[in-house]
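Hi R.,

As promised on Friday, here is the backbone we talked about, encoded as structure tokens. Could you run it through your design pipeline when you get a chance and send me back a sequence?
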């Protein structure tokens, strides 16, 4: 059957869970999936922020059944509670987006062992927790997984960009995101008998508003990207739409770089 692109990207009747779904990047990905017809669950430690974002999704896609669930990806019991809430609602799970992250700014000089453990836990171990707990639901519906990694999972930060620790990229972050990329490839192999596709997106520089206030730093970041600008959340909409829909049905085990060309040189 030859399906149109519109039909391939239609997510009507599918259920998506986005960890960190009310955050800077998670919000845009939630919008994209809702616009394509998915019922979206936003999960975060910030329940109030999730509820506010759910109201926005209902304005964007009023036919969808969107809701928020409180979730701490560093706490296995919280993850299990989130999965149980999905099971009790009898909606199933078709799309899992592992996006949650909260970081500590550290240079090589300032980072301590506890900082390292925290970053690895929230950036890498949390992805394992989410996939392990969500796997039975994903298996039931031959779902797909999209892990949000980073360009710093496959290229090193340029030390010349950073001054002090205010905007520093800690060594733990890139090491953990590199682990996410390898875990993505592993899952793509070992979950393929269940017809579960697994891919990653590696965003480039998507600085938050507080970081954008440092104009000198912004100019240094912009100079690194061949497209001559920094990323905006909407730049991730096309990537998540492709990998979460049947338009990407023949794509698995891949890392889609959305970095303005940052990693080409």
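Update: got your reply. Pasting your designed sequence below so it's all in one thread:
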């Amino acid at each position: 059957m030859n399906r149109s692109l519109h039909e391939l990207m239609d997510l009507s009747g599918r259920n998506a869970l986005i960890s960190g779904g009310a955050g800077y990047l998670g919000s845009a990905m939630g919008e994209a999936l809702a616009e394509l017809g998915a019922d979206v669950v936003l999960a975060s430690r910030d329940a109030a922020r999730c509820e506010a974002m759910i109201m926005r999704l209902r304005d964007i896609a009023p036919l969808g059944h969107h809701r928020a669930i409180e979730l701490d990806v560093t706490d296995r019991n919280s993850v299990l509670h989130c999965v149980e809430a999905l099971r009790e609602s009898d909606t199933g799970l078709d799309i899992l987006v592992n996006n949650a992250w909260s970081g500590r700014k550290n240079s090589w000089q300032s980072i301590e062992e506890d900082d390292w453990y925290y970053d690895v836990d929230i950036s890498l171990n949390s992805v394992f927790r989410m996939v392990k707990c969500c796997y039975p639901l994903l298996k039931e519906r031959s779902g797909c997984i999209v892990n949000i990694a980073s360009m710093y999972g496959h290229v090193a930060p340029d030390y010349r960009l950073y001054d002090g620790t205010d905007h520093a990229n800690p060594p733990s972050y890139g090491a953990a995101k590199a682990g996410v990329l390898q875990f993505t490839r592993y899952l793509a192999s070992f979950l393929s008998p269940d017809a579960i596709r697994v891919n990653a997106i590696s965003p480039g520089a998507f600085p938050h508003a507080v970081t954008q206030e440092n104009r000198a730093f912004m100019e240094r970041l912009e100079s690194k990207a061949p497209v001559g600008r920094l990323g905006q959340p909407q730049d991730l909409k096309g990537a998540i739409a492709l990998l979460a829909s049947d338009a990407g049905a023949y794509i698995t085990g891949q890392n889609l770089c959305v970095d303005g060309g940052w990693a080409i040189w």
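One thing I noticed while checking it: The chain has a mean pLDDT of 94.

Thanks again,
M.
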